[in-house]
TrEMBL record:
Pfam families, A to Z: Plug (PF07715), TonB_dep_Rec_b-barrel (PF00593)
The protein, known as: TonB-dependent receptor
TonB-dependent receptor plug domain boundaries: 45-146
Sequence ranges of Polar residues compositional bias: 223-234
Family recorded in the similarity comment: Belongs to the TonB-dependent receptor family.
Organism: Pelomonas baiyunensis
Domain TonB-dependent receptor-like beta-barrel: 185-621
Domain of life: Bacteria
Keyword terms, alphabetized: Cell outer membrane, Membrane, Receptor, Signal, TonB box, Transmembrane, Transmembrane beta strand, Transport
Annotated spans, Disordered: 193-234, 387-408
Membrane topology summary: Multi-pass membrane protein
């Protein structure tokens, strides 16, 4: 099956590559941020990053978390090389919203660290990150930020004829063999035409190589140079199409993503995951009348994964989710430019099997939001509000016989979020920005109703059905300078939670399946504070060379006890040098992390480290074809390093990757 999945991709790549030989200048990168920017402002007050074009190709990893963890303020949960979710400013799980084309990406990655994100980085065109609270537009569970992956599965602009891209990648710490083909086409005129999209991808990877380390076993430790049970195999496919009319478009897409990967924390356990998604989206614009723009999107997701050990299915997780959104932009009124929107989400979740620690649940969320902007000279002000109605139902013991989930029950919540921001442009490319927000988040179903052994955390987790809203207030201030080929961005922030829903040990233990004592962790609301700084810059020293620098730090604690919040990234820094001459470009960088010794009572300090990475790339062109060949070298010193943001149960089993070489080619036509 794996060879069959890779064969058509390899053939298509080789067909396209056969003609690419000559050089061209580097392609320009699209830096316009659309996430959190429905009014299409040129400058966002909220800190944001985007990866696209050649930059995305060179940063792309096997999963979404590892693709983004080099950005300022963004780390990854790193539950082995296959399950890694982005963590933003010290917040992860249900506080970071993962989107696909601005719609919900339904999976179980927020429930458990060993559950992967059901998005293949190989086929996305762009990924955008909003750092800091984005609850106004995306709900209370975006208090930490938003990660939005963008593709062209629903064509939004008409492309006549045929265009596309093909990519092949070989090597890396997991001996990666992967490829993708993306095709777009269409006919007609922008106001009377149609377009289509198709993509196919596959990846086959072995166990991840690492520097030599001592891996814990049931009998002590063993010396290893690979992460046990970390191989993976996945493939995906999608089809989509749109019709274009006067002022807009309407389209639909279907996609299928499947993967099988080892869980690492267990020797022989694997997760078999699949997600199918049907989506529709459209937009209508006019220059007259009270309504200037109307946009909509609706998606239906079916997700399932089974945890398999020795050929037997132990537990099956299923989620069926629907996400709908409608936005209406009104004509300017007295200098105000804004929109009103509604969003509806539904999620049906079930976990059946011996390792299910959450009952079957139904979550329904309806939200109404408004956003208005006002501009006075160089000052742009934005203000908005969002109100939601959330219902979470537990089916109790309807799927079990041991009585641990109790009677069916329902909780209702009415979170309200407010935001105010401003951007002031100064002379010489400088600007100042500020954000103030009040965010309320309804507890997730597992925070309310969990009651069972969770192998990913090696603990017994217990929810609290009486939890109230998680409330926070945050402030973020930034300074930016944008030059022709240089820039400097700096942000400082603080978020205070009056009721931070934390998973904390209560001092009790239970007997595990192998007779060992496991700690009991309970979800409970505590006062907490997070604050940090992010600095990122680029200086074009000469026409050929540019100097890069980056620094971020986050500090968080339970303000009642003074205990640090769990899984916070240490202070991190990057220094790099880029060079470009004609079609050639190169980069060398040093990335360092300080020792993280501010940990909670049930964790261990993580040593600091520094690694050196390098890359070499060449632009290719022949006729209508252009592309990129690249060579990436990571961890050149083969430095042994551990990730402080990973849960303790996986950290010692899965160090950061060792020295590796990867090469690949992407061709666009």
């Amino acid at each position: 099956m794996r060879s069959f999945a890779l064969a058509p991709i390899a053939a298509a790549c080789l067909f396209v590559l056969a003609s690419a030989a000559q050089a061209d200048t580097a392609e320009s990168l699209d830096k316009v941020v659309v996430t959190g920017n429905p009014l299409k402002s040129q400058v966002l007050a909220q800190p944001s990053d985007s990866l696209s074009g050649d930059q995305l190709v060179l940063n792309r990893a096997a999963n979404l978390g590892d693709t983004l963890q080099g950005l300022a303020g963004v780390s990854a949960t790193n539950f082995g090389p296959n399950a890694s979710r982005p963590s933003i400013r010290g917040l992860d799980g249900d506080r970071v919203r993962i989107l696909n084309n601005s719609g919900a990406s339904v999976d179980a990655s927020n429930l458990s660290f060993d559950h992967g994100v059901a998005i293949d980085p190989l086929v996305i065109d762009k990924v955008e990150v909003l750092r800091g609270a984005a609850a106004l537009l995306y709900g209370g569970n975006a208090v930490g930020g938003v990660v939005n992956t963008l593709d062209n599965r629903i064509p939004r602009t008409l492309i006549r004829g045929l265009s596309g891209a093909a990519e092949m990648r070989l090597g890396g710490p997991s001996n990666d063999r992967s490829g993708a083909v993306v095709l777009d086409g269409g006919a007609g005129r922008p106001n009377d035409g149609w377009g289509w999209h198709a993509d196919l991808s596959a990846r086959d990877a072995g166990d991840q190589r690492t520097p030599r380390f001592d891996s814990p076993t049931d009998d002590g430790t063993e010396s290893r140079t690979t992460v046990r049970n970390s191989a993976s195999h996945n493939h995906s496919a999608a089809l989509g199409g749109s019709v274009f009319f006067q002022g807009g478009y309407a389209g639909v897409s279907v996609d299928d993503f499947r993967t099988t990967y080892g869980t690492t924390v267990e020797d022989a356990a694997k997760i078999q995951m699949q997600r199918q998604r049907v989506a529709t989206a459209g937009e209508w614009n006019t220059e007259d009348g009270p309504v200037r723009r109307l946009s909509w999107q609706l998606s239906r997701n079916r997700y399932e994964h089974s945890e398999v050990e020795n050929g037997q299915v132990g537990t099956t997780f299923k989620s069926t989710g629907t996400d709908g959104r409608l936005e209406l932009t009104h004509a300017p009124v007295g200098g105000l430019h804004g929109l009103v929107g509604v969003q509806w989400e539904g999620l049906d979740f079930s976990a059946l099997g011996e390792e299910a620690f959450v009952p079957s649940t139904r979550t329904r969320n309806a939200g109404l939001f408004v956003l208005e902007q006002y501009r006075v000279g160089e000052l742009q002000l934005s203000a908005g509000a969002r109100h939601e109605q959330v219902r979470v139902n537990s089916s109790g013991d309807s799927d079990t016989s041991d009585g641990r989930f109790g009677m069916p029950q329902q909780r209702r919540f009415s979170p309200t979020s407010l935001a105010f921001s401003g951007v002031y442009g100064l002379a010489g490319g400088w600007s100042l920005s500020g954000n103030l927000n009040h965010t309320e988040r309804a507890p997730a179903y597992y925070e309310l109703f969990a009651n069972g052994l969770h192998l990913a955390t090696h603990a017994f987790e217990r929810g609290d059905a009486h939890l109230g809203l998680e409330r926070s207030r945050g402030a973020d201030f930034g300074v930016k300078w944008e030059g022709e080929r240089s820039h400097l961005h700096m942000n400082v922030y603080e978020t205070r939670f009056s009721n931070y829903i934390a998973l904390q040990a209560n001092g009790q233990t239970v007997t595990g399946p192998e007779g060992d004592d496991l700690p009991v962790y309970v979800f409970q609301g505590v006062p907490a504070r997070l604050r940090g700084v992010e600095l990122e810059g680029r200086w074009q020293a000469t026409g050929m060379f540019a100097v890069l620098a980056q620094f971020d730090a986050v500090r968080g604690e339970n303000t009642q006890t003074g205990e640090p919040l769990p899984r916070l990234a240490p202070r991190r820094a990057m220094l790099g040098l880029e060079a470009q001459q004609g079609p050639w470009s190169a980069r060398v960088e040093w990335r360092g992390a300080a020792r993280q010794d501010r940990v909670d009572a049930f964790d261990q300090p993580t040593a600091g480290y520094g690694t050196v990475n390098a890359s070499l790339a060449r632009q290719l062109k022949l006729g209508e074809l252009d592309g990129l060949w690249y060579l990436r070298l990571t961890n050149l010193g083969n430095k042994l390093a551990y990730n402080a943001t990973a849960v303790p149960t996986i950290r010692d089993l899965s160090p950061q990757p060792g020295r590796a070489v990867m090469t690949g080619v992407q061709v666009r036509f």
